[in-house]
Amino acid sequence: MKLYFDDTVRDDSFKIEYNFSVNEIFGLLRSAPQYCYYKEDHPEHPDDVDIALEKLTEIYKPNSRDEKVARGWTPIFLLLGRKPSSDSQIGRQEAKMIEPRLL
Q1: For site-directed labelling of 103, which of 7, 34, 41, 47 has its Cα 20 to 30 A away?
Q2: How many C-beta atoms lie closer than 10 Å to residue 42's C-beta?
Q3: What pLDDT digit, counting tens, does each position of 50-101 carry?
């Protein structure tokens, strides 16, 4: 990744966490376009997602299909850069003059 400023900081402390229930996992599978095309082309075939759902429920035995059983996280990072100014003191003074406000 090309960094445009010399004064750059990377923060790796951010992450996105999510928890899925059995119903949510299989709902996600059912929403995949390939699955929908397959069901559209072969309506006579048994529903493979329903079969897998039943087998998973037998093996795992959650209290309910709405119980959160899978957890995932996605690490993300934030790059903060500051454009160098010809006179850094002027930039700091200008920054102090700007009052924060809520949008």
Answers
A1: 7
A2: 9
A3: 898 888 778 777 677 777 777 777 788 888 887 776 555 545 545 444 444 5
Angle between helices 22-30 and 48-60 (to 10 degrees): 160
- Altogether, the residues listed in the chain come to a count of 103
3-state DSSP assignment of residue 100: coil
**Alpha-carbon gap, residue 37 to 52, rounded angstroms:** 18
Tokens 């390939």 appear where?
A: 34
C-alpha 79/C-alpha 44 separation (Å) is 52
In this predicted model, which residue has the larger pLDDT, 3 or 50? 50
